[in-house]
User: Fold these one by one.
Assistant:
Number 1:
Amino acid sequence: KNIVILISGGGSNMAAIVQASRARQWPARFGAKVAAVFSNKATAQGLVWAAGEGIPTGVVDHRQFAQREAFDAALMAQIDVHSPALVVLAGFMRILTPGFVQHYQNRLINIHPSLLPAFTGLNTHQRAIDMGCRFAGATVHRVTSELDHGAILDQAVVPVLPGDTAEALAGRVLTQEHIIYPRAVERLLAAMP
Ligand code: GRF
């Protein structure tokens, strides 16, 4: 069972999943491994980390495609080389077309840095602070064609502290992401035939 991970930046969630696959022995227990990491940005630092770990990496630069559908088709072609059992969006900052979502129906998941259904979209931490939220968090969910609205697979909650900046809250949430995302992936692997 191949896991393909899509990133756009630092890839800390991708790294947490790779490290969990080793520490939790996913290959031996589930016949699963992280087969490849792809990014829409050649500058994504996570690509350097993944390559350093011996994981195949690839870049599909969205700027080279006039339409969203063409970008998605090119990305799908690279992903499907690995016949993935699971496609994991991890800090992947692209909105995917319905065709992409349909193609990976039921094997496409994402992590969003808020307690969905609250704060879909961007700048979730500043918005939570601005609203006076006492709690914030992260959500692992299935990806559907409606942004940030798929079935929830797991969540973690953190306190919003007086004087919190968006950066401080983001760091507190990210720590929890690194716990719940690998856990959610393992739960899905365990449930696969
Ligand atoms: C972070 O804001 C995280 O909350 C969200 O994507 C961003 C980058 O994550 N999931 P990563 O370090 O690239 O995994």
Number 2:
Amino acid sequence: EAKARGRSTVCVFAPEMEARLRDRLQMEADLRAALAEGQFHLAYQPIFALPSGERCGFEALLRWNHPTRGPIPPDAFIAVAEETRLIVDIGAWVLRRACTDVGALPGTPRIAVNLSPVQLAVGDIAATLAAILGETGIDPARVEIEITETALFTGEQRNRDTLRRLKALGVRTVLDDFGTGFSSLSHLRLFPLDKIKIDRSFIHDMAEHADSAAIVEAIAGLARRLGIDTTAEGIETEEQLAIIRRIGCTEAQGYLLGQPGPLDGDRRS
Ligand code: C2E
Ligand code: MG
Ligand code: MG
Ligand code: MG
């Protein structure tokens, strides 16, 4: 038995695994330092209402400027932040920063913030958000909480309960990256959502594949009948914009219309 354990120990500390573990521990230490030393900032991508084309809000996107490695995209560090639960503190920072920045703009643009399922499952995000709403004085109806369908429909019941408590604060709930997870339109009955963001993979395929356009059209049509807004994500071409206008999506977001960047208070809301 000791021999077997010995073998498995050798296996656990195989060199490449050891390297991965070291990288992960380093990343965790770096993330802690990043939060303490202010290495994070937010990029804001504008979102536009259709058919008017007026800018109606922004999505806050987390950016990390690492002191030696330079800019690191969120997809490269959110997972470690989730595993270590650092996302709870990082996510609270994002919410506070975003509500402060956008709350100070003229007009009443909305601010969308991405929430990790870990933030729903651990700690007390409702208390955190309530405090931030109070501090910043932003109208809760201007705040949108984006969550992915995997977090909402394949995760714990607790995630849905927590999101309901957020919604009770008066904020809007948004299903992000719709179509990429275990999505089923029937799931939409399980949780009161204000908006669905149709994943950019569908938007990307629409022009060449009639099937993708048909799916987006069906989603937009059903959402409309349920009184739910639909944002088309990842609009990169005029052709895609024309299609989602025709299909009747209520909002558009993408590089064609606006890149993530510093908040520009001068742009009309
Ligand atoms: P997401 O919430 O779906 O955000 C949209 C992503 O698509 C952003 O990537 C944005 O820069 C990118 N994007 C926008 N328009 C276009 C386009 O026209 N074409 C293409 N190809 N991409 C476009 P980003 O900023 O790298 O963020 C990636 C993901 O990281 C986000 O996906 C979100 O899931 C996560 N994330 C970002 N900020 C936060 C945060 O504060 N907290 C949490 N938990 N997750 C975050
Ligand atoms: Mg999002
Ligand atoms: Mg998305
Ligand atoms: Mg995403």
